[in-house]
Every structure is written in structure tokens, then in C-alpha cells.
């Protein structure tokens, strides 16, 4: 007796909709995973355990100071090149003075982007220092490896009410500098980091 083969179950609209939903869910999950591991900002910051509100920026005076240095360097150079070439080679050659002038205009915006990239955050066991625009860099300074924390302030920095914090550790690769701080913030960080470093070294 020959039996009739059972017909394959028909894939109805409900099954197709379920497959479509599952594929969409997998695609969304893949997008979420990519976002969590993408780059050094945003999601990358959250991966370090630091939210956006816990990062601290450096003072705006640092940008003003660096722009002043830029102008005091390139504007006199522009005038000197224009006069030298204009008097010795002719007016047409004086157009080469536009090169340092263009560099000054480009540097004006580049300094702003670099200034915005500087930030730092204090965690339970270490200090994070982030910087850089094209090449982003983050330095992790463990409190227990700190050997010296000092505050410096040059003549121009004092004029703009700024100070610089320098961190020296047992390994040169974890040394770090935070420019553009107010003197009060720099001293607060120095005292706190020194205290935490001594406590970690003593095993407390």
C-alpha cells in the first residue's frame, strides 16, 4: 500500500512577517553593538565609565593665549616677507607673503578645535586626560603610580589667569599634562591627586 507524501507546510504571510521582524531585530542589534564600540567619543566615553557630564574642559583663556602667540609669530613674518620680496625682487614676489598669512588663518580655526578636544575626568582609581582632533589620545594615570604632581605658570599664562598641571608617574608613558586650568583648580587637583597617590602607595 503506497501512502501519499505529506505536503510541505505552506509559508503563510504570518511566517514571512515573523522572518522580517526577526531580520529587522538582528539588524538593529548589530547597529547598537557597532555604536557601543565606535570611536573614542560618545559611546567610547561611556565604555570608560565616564558620562559626558563628568568630563571637565579647560579654560577659554588657553585658546586666547595660543591665538595671541600665533598672531605674534605669523603676522610679523607676513610683513617681513612682503617687504623683503617686494623691495628686492619686485611687487609680484611679495604675494608669497600670503603663505604665512594663510597659515595664520588656518591655525586660528585649528587652535579652536584643539582647545575643545582637551578634557579630563577623575575616576575612583585613575585620572583620564583626553586630547587631539585628527589623532585622538587618551592617557590613563593611575593614582598609585604618581610620583610627582606640580603646578606651573609662565608669564603669559599668569596674564590670562592660567596654570598647568604636570603629572609624573613611575612610567613615562603615563605622564600627563593638563594646560589651561585656573590656579585654584590646578592647586585643588594637585592636592587631591597627591593625597590619593600617597593613599594608594600605602595600600589604604
TrEMBL record:
<feature type="domain" description="YdbS-like PH">
    <location>
        <begin position="115"/>
        <end position="193"/>
    </location>
</feature>
<feature type="compositionally biased region" description="Basic and acidic residues">
    <location>
        <begin position="20"/>
        <end position="29"/>
    </location>
</feature>
<feature type="transmembrane region" description="Helical">
    <location>
        <begin position="93"/>
        <end position="111"/>
    </location>
</feature>
<feature type="transmembrane region" description="Helical">
    <location>
        <begin position="68"/>
        <end position="87"/>
    </location>
</feature>
<keyword id="KW-0812">Transmembrane</keyword>
<feature type="region of interest" description="Disordered">
    <location>
        <begin position="1"/>
        <end position="47"/>
    </location>
</feature>
<dbReference type="InterPro" id="IPR005182">
    <property type="entry name" value="YdbS-like_PH"/>
</dbReference>
<dbReference type="Pfam" id="PF03703">
    <property type="entry name" value="bPH_2"/>
</dbReference>
<keyword id="KW-0472">Membrane</keyword>
<keyword id="KW-1133">Transmembrane helix</keyword>
<protein>
    <submittedName>
        <fullName>PH domain-containing protein</fullName>
    </submittedName>
</protein>
Amino acid at each position: 500500500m503506497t501512502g501519499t507524501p505529506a505536503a510541505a507546510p505552506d509559508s503563510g504571510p504570518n511566517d514571512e512577517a515573523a522572518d522580517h521582524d526577526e531580520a529587522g531585530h538582528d539588524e538593529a542589534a548589530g547597529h547598537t553593538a557597532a555604536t557601543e564600540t565606535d570611536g573614542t567619543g560618545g559611546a567610547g566615553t561611556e565604555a570608560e565609565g565616564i558620562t559626558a557630564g563628568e568630563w571637565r574642559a579647560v579654560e577659554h583663556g588657553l585658546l586666547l593665549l595660543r591665538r595671541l602667540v600665533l598672531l605674534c609669530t605669523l603676522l610679523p613674518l607676513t610683513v617681513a616677507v612682503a617687504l623683503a620680496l617686494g623691495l628686492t625682487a619686485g611687487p609680484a614676489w611679495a604675494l608669497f607673503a600670503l603663505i604665512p598669512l594663510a597659515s595664520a588663518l588656518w591655525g586660528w580655526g585649528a587652535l579652536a578645535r584643539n582647545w575643545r578636544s582637551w578634557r579630563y575626568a577623575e575616576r575612583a582609581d585613575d585620572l583620564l586626560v583626553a586630547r587631539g582632533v585628527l589623532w585622538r589620545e587618551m592617557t590613563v594615570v593611575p593614582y598609585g603610580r604618581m610620583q610627582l604632581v606640580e603646578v606651573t605658570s609662565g608669564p603669559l599664562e599668569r596674564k590670562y589667569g592660567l596654570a598647568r598641571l604636570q603629572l609624573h608617574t613611575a612610567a613615562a608613558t603615563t605622564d600627563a599634562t593638563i594646560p589651561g586650568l585656573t590656579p585654584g583648580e590646578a592647586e585643588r587637583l594637585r592636592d587631591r591627586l597627591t593625597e590619593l597617590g600617597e593613599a594608594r602607595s600605602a595600600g589604604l
